[in-house]
Amino acid sequence: MVCIPKMLTIYRFKEAEEMINGKEIIRLENVSTVYEGENRAALRDISLSIKENELVYIIGPNASGKTTLLETINGLLNPFKGSIFVSGLNIKKHGRYLRTEIGYVPQDFMVEPGEPYLAHDVVVMGRYGKMGVLNKPSKRDREKAHNTMKMLEIDELSNRPMGKLSGGQQQKVMIARALAKEPRILLMDEPFSNLDPESKRKIPELITEIHEKNNLTTIIVTHETHRMIKSCTRALVLDNGRIIADEIPEKSLQTLETYS
Amino acid sequence: MIWLGFDIVGKAVFSCILIGVLTGLMGVFVVRMRLSAIGYSMSHGAFAGAALGVATSINPLVSAMLFASFVALIIGPVADKAKLHPDTITSILFPLNMALAFIFLTLTPEIGLTSQVANVLWGSIISITNNDLVYMTTICAFTLSVIYLVWKELFAIMYNRKLAEADGINTRIFIYFIILLSGIVTTLSLKLVGGLLVYALLFNPASTALQFLEDMRKVIIVSPIIGVTTNLLGLVASLYLDIPVGSSIVLVSTIVFALSVLVSPKRRRRMME
Q1: What is the ipTM, given to two decimal places?
Q2: How many CB atoms lie within 10 A of CB A213?
Q3: Is the CB of residue A22 less than 8 Å away from at least one CB of chain B?
Q4: Is the domain covering B7-196 a CATH 1.10.3470.10 domain?
Q5: What pTM does this model have?
Q6: C-alpha separations of B227 from A120, B219, B230 in Å
Q7: Closest chain B residue by Cα to residue A116
Q8: Which residues of A touch B219 (CB under 8 A)?
Q9: CB contact (8 A) between residue A37 and residue B156
């Protein structure tokens, strides 16, 4: 009952991939959005194409639309104009399925001190969408979560409540949750902001390694432009909801400096 | 049926256990999903439904449950449409339910508040019938089974709805379902403690469990146990002290919560920090 629609979606997914020759993984066509409850535009007429295995940075001043762009790509926000295709499928129609293939590290992840959730459970949650309704986490799901935590050197936090962890530790748990999903696309919103100096060096290196090893298409929103990952091939500069530069990172940084 | 021979106390004990399990369980979701207004809106929705039942000669418990379920069903979609928290919509529906209840009561002025409608508002454990116990057992079995089956999704939504949605979970359908189930459970609890006291049954056991536990999977098991224990202690206290059962249960449940706050290891740790 649960499997048939999923199989059909997988079929459509593969078919769509063939249509676009398996290279372009994300496409935005004239996408515009507004901030919820306001008439102010958050994204203005954005057209964008991201290829498989690209590592793209999105930079720009505050309120330029960076987070909105990420949430629009994974279908958490609906545009009022334009279309978004992920792996050739329209995110509006197939969002729920596509999101099982997209790892997402949000900007706002801090929980209250009494939060009754163990870190390991939160990491396993990243795989829930993939499992399908009514299925329980398997031994493999738990092992995958454990290995991801080990890779990020947070396996000793497994049985600690989230509310008791520091901001940096919680951020690592969020990164582990996104990676444990074994996504094809990784969207990260200010993923290094709360980390200590050593982790700020180590975690980007790890992301680079995973990106290269798994052909993982990665999009990172950041303010910390001096910490760009070496394998980053492209940086988009956003301002006032528009892409004002889409170049190699060095040039984009120059554009950002000139612009600001 | 096995409980045909049950006396009033037997039925009261049985209903205390069933309602304790149900409200203790649903309370965890209501507290975690911040649906605090659900208790009073549902109970007054049930009150309006009971008044309508009396006015139209339908079993008041059935009409109360149908009316409360209808109210519960529209909360989620209206909240999503209005882009407001479900709690806000619940608070808007609360006075509407009361207004409708008063209108329905005026349709039967000869019965008014002295009728079985008042039982919905104040609770009346002696009016619990065998049919009520059948409803409670059925809903209890249904609720436990469904929550077991979709626990994974509810667990993730209670942690963070947006992240659950980002992982591909259809959060909307599960939240609507929890609101609907909370409405039904609230309605079932009305005969035990009444609409004015039912919130204590929903909030106190879950809040007490959260004082001690740091693992949600333990909270969901301990909260119904606390619910059953406080209900039974409240029933015993009411028999000994000759006070209304509903009030007695609420007093015991609140005392247990207050004690849990005082001895909570979380509080002690915070003080040490």
Answers
A1: 0.84
A2: 8
A3: no
A4: yes
A5: 0.83
A6: 29, 12, 5
A7: B214
A8: 116
A9: no
